[in-house]
Amino acid sequence: MKLIAVSAGLSTPSSTRLLADRLIESARGELAAQGHTVPTDVIELRELARDVANHLVTGFPPSRLAAAIDAVTAADGLIVVTPVFTASYSGLFKSFFDLIDPDALTGKPVLTAATGGTARHSLVLEHALRPLFAYLRAAVAPTAVYAASEDWGSGGDEYTDGLPARIRRAGGELAALMAARPARAEPEDDVTALERQLADLRFD
Predict the structure, then answer these.
(1) pTM (2 d.p.)
(2) Can you give the residue ranges of every domain in the chain?
(3) 51, 58, 104, 108: most buried by Cβ count inside 10 Å?
């Protein structure tokens, strides 16, 4: 299995990237506890912004962008994290996923997350991110994680889990979805596929 995170943070350092890293650690730890060694990677969309724009205009992805799209579509699990702009996901985030084949994420486990300056924007997870990935027919983890500025370092209270607890729960849910997904069959090479076709044509 392979786990990929997509971070749409625009600054360096970025709280969006930090949240992506924490979620990867949580999911990878849960999978390791189940006996799975899972390679991970993070795709920083800020490094691909110009390539995304060029692809939207020309219809042809530059090599770095093509590699990122291939990594996302081939992953066994995805973590997607966006900063909130005007009460929704960022334009860069949406533009990148506009370039993904609409069928490529079908059934793929996805954990959604977002960062923002205030907790008032936390509903972006349910009114923007979850519908987007439901439309793409992904298997979206029940717990989505929003991190406002005041959440970092907060342990929560008697009514609300703190950010670390939400990260652990979401990571566990993503790990469970990935572990339960049937293993993908290795694609046949051309020779094997031809032999199978010939065998189907034989008559007794």
Answers:
(1) 0.86
(2) 3-201
(3) 108
